[in-house]
Design a protein that fits this description.
By secondary structure, this protein is α/β, with parallel strands linked by helices. 41% of the residues lie in helices and 20% in strands. α1 packs across α3, α2 crosses α3 and α2 runs antiparallel to α4. The protein is globular, with a radius of gyration of 20 Å.
């Protein structure tokens, strides 16, 4: 039962999760943390070769270093996988009508390349939505160097993303013609993304809150999508992560967060840009001021 885990132990677990993963569980989210650790204890019990008592599980987590597999299990049960294709239709309208046409026109010469990063890609709906949009706007995109880096801390989310098979719940904001054109019906309410779109995307496990280098993102991202991620970080970690994003962006490129996270983005290298129903952040071009 949730009440069987004392508050003082949940507090220690919250601090541990913050230090190891970067996730933020203040007191008003302890219920979620209790639910997550009870669920994780069942899987961790097999790793520890013991019973699935959550209190015992917490003590074991706190008393010894975690293996990568144990950390993956814990992360899997504490992160949220709620997303769907073309989430936030206003954002995708801005991408379709303004941002992508500007990028395409500026590169439609010798240097035909575009680089995007879906940071916190969850089960893949966001990067695949971007791939679909690119396919619509650049019919011969194979002649371009298109890079979509998709990262997440949750290994199981990435496994699902790489499979590219989704149920109808993931399509609740998706026109039927897109489903028909870009997905194959696999039966039993399952639809698989077109294999040629998978070629645009590289899925990689990455903890945005960790000390791991962002080197593989260097080289000038044209846009970084980090939506519904920063809200789960402790407040002092958000500026650090945003600063690393700014380093990964090329001049004039975009940082895209969710509407509820806009207030978190306070960086001298970024400025607000207002569109209808959407606020984005653009990296300054040297000499603009």
């Amino acid at each position: 039962m949730h009440s069987d885990i004392p508050d003082h132990l949940i507090l220690r677990l919250s601090e541990f999760v913050h230090s190891e993963i970067g996730l933020y569980f203040p007191e008003d989210r302890w219920r979620n943390l209790r639910q997550g650790i009870i669920s994780a204890a069942r899987d961790l019990a097999r790793e520890y070769k013991t019973n699935d008592d959550p209190v015992m599980c917490i003590h074991r987590l706190l008393s010894s270093p975690l293996t990568k597999k144990q950390l993956d299990i814990l992360t899997e049960h504490l992160t949220i996988g709620e997303t769907y294709f073309f989430r936030d239709k206003n954002l995708f309208q801005v991408l379709r009508k303004i941002i992508l046409p500007e990028l395409i026109n500026s590169r439609n010469g010798k240097k035909k390349h575009l680089r995007f990063w879906s940071a916190g890609c969850c089960t893949g709906e966001e990067p695949y939505s971007l791939a679909i949009l690119i396919d619509q706007m650049i019919p011969v995109w194979q002649e371009w160097q298109i890079t979509i880096l998709a990262t997440d801390i949750n290994a199981r989310f990435l496994q699902k993303a790489e499979r590219g098979i989704y149920r109808k719940w993931s399509f609740r904001n998706t026109p039927q013609w897109i489903i028909k054109k870009y997905f194959k019906n696999r039966g039993q309410d399952c639809f698989e993304i077109s294999p040629h779109l998978k070629k645009m995307i590289t899925f990689t496990q990455l903890n945005l809150a960790g000390k791991t280098s962002f080197d593989h993102t260097q080289g000038g991202m044209d846009a970084i999508f980090c939506r519904n991620v920063l809200m789960y970080f402790v407040p002092e970690l958000r500026p650090y992560t945003i600063g690393r994003f700014v380093q990964s962006l090329s001049e004039g490129s975009w940082l895209i967060v969710s509407p509820g996270e806009t207030a978190f983005v306070q960086h001298s290298g970024l400025h607000f840009v207002r569109f209808p129903e959407v606020i984005l952040h653009r990296k300054e071009v040297r000499g603009e001021r």
